[in-house]
Amino acid sequence: MKLFRTDLQKAGPPADISVPRKKHMMCLNESVLDPYQAIDEAFNQTMQHIHLNRYFSQVTSELKRALVDYVGHNVTSENILWGNGADDMLFACFLAVREDNDSFVLTHAPSYFDYSTYSRAAGLNIRYQNFNPDFSFDEKEYLDILNSKDCRLGVLCNPNNPTGHLLDDAQIRYILDNTQKPVLIDETYYEFSQRTYIDLIKQYPNLIVVRSFSKSFSAAGLRFGYLVSAAENVNEIRKVQTIFNTSIMVQAFVLTMLMNKNLFLEHVKKTIDLKEQLYQRINKIENLKTWKTHTNFLTFSVGEKSADLFEFLKSKDIAIRDVGAHPILHNHLRVSIGSAEQNNCFAAAIEEFLLKR
Ligand SMILES: Cc1ncc(COP(=O)(O)O)c(C=O)c1O
């Protein structure tokens, strides 16, 4: 007897989430700033007024006000829904749009790997439109697929992971102007790119913007993300969430982070400066190809030697990410921006590796 959904059984083993544990973890686009170390006293202060024996807390309305204020663009608390990271918001959207076994979500390739993990978990198929080698795409073709009968949602990752590029603004607007299907813009790296579409949620009732606290607020382990959309959409998507989805303690921590937001936003600026320095340094290396990104990572290639470089870096206690699965990123690697010292170790290791070969 089959215990679980047929499509889950067909999907094969669960996603492999093992990562090498190295001294320099530069593989998951995490921050080097530990938010708890940064605001522990303020957090402990916030917790004085919070009772974890209760399901409900006044911290929820305080956080709503603080987040509305942070997001700006005249959004109200009815426009916001939060959960356990951007991943959780993606999953909620996928669950909320699925109609039947033919339903699918459309996204680009290469893009964020876990769109496929969560769409499949929600019982949705996934279709990809490939980026061209220069990361451009044909917006008319994208629209044709998006407007086809079984497509339930278009996802645009902006800036895109793992390429780090921003999609063309005119193309995004063209898509929004020519569809009534839900369009989700994933702005997980917003604070690094400073490009947002939240100001358009009033104009486009089908637009959903997803954001994260994992990157700019340095809180990957905390698990907090949110979406912004028309109140009607928020009400529908809310129906697939468990009621006490986000722990009161997490809400209290996020509230405290927002009360100290400059500390985190300063760190974003510092990371952008460090990225620029690392870019300048590795871009000078002969036979290494890289480009400017709008995120907290750089993607690069040393051609056929990339796989050996990946192993060499591991031997130097540096973990980065192999993002070469898609043909246009064949032999490409991705490094998250670390501390000045880590970036230096990383660049020096590449220089050493290339000198030897
Ligand atoms: C494009 C993109 N979307 C979503 C996520 C998930 O973010 P979170 O940690 O908030 O779940 C990531 C994480 O790396 C990402 O790169």
What is the strand and helix layout of this fold?
Layout: H1 6-10, E1 24-25, H2 35-47, H3 59-71, E2 80-83, H4 85-97, E3 104-109, H5 114-121, E4 125-130, H6 139-146, E5 151-157, H7 169-177, E6 183-186, H8 190-193, E7 207-212, E8 225-229, H9 231-238, H10 248-259, H11 261-283, E9 289-290, E10 297-301, H12 306-315, E11 318-319, E12 321-322, E13 332-336, H13 340-356
Parallel strand pairs: 1-11, 3-4, 3-5, 5-6, 6-7
Antiparallel strand pairs: 2-8, 7-8, 9-10, 10-13, 12-13
Helix pairs in contact: 2-10, 3-10, 4-5, 6-7, 11-13
Q: How would you describe this structure to a colleague?
A:
With 357 residues, the chain is α/β, with parallel strands linked by helices. It has 2 domains: 19-33 and 262-356, Aspartate Aminotransferase, domain 1 (Alpha-Beta Complex), CATH 3.90.1150.10; 41-260, Aspartate Aminotransferase, domain 2 (3-Layer(aba) Sandwich), CATH 3.40.640. Helix content is 40%, strand content 16%. A 7-stranded mixed beta sheet has the order 2-8-7-6-5-3-4, sandwiched between helices. Strands 9-10-13-12 form a 4-stranded antiparallel beta sheet, with helices on one face. It has a two-stranded parallel ribbon with strand order 1-11. Strand 9 and strand 10 (297-301) form a beta hairpin. The longest helix has 23 residues, at 261-283. The termini are far apart. The structure holds pyridoxal-5'-phosphate. Pyridoxal-5'-phosphate is lined by residues 29, 85-87, 112, 157, 161, 186, 188, 212, 214, 220, 225. The site of pyridoxal-5'-phosphate (PLP) has 13 residues, from helix 4.
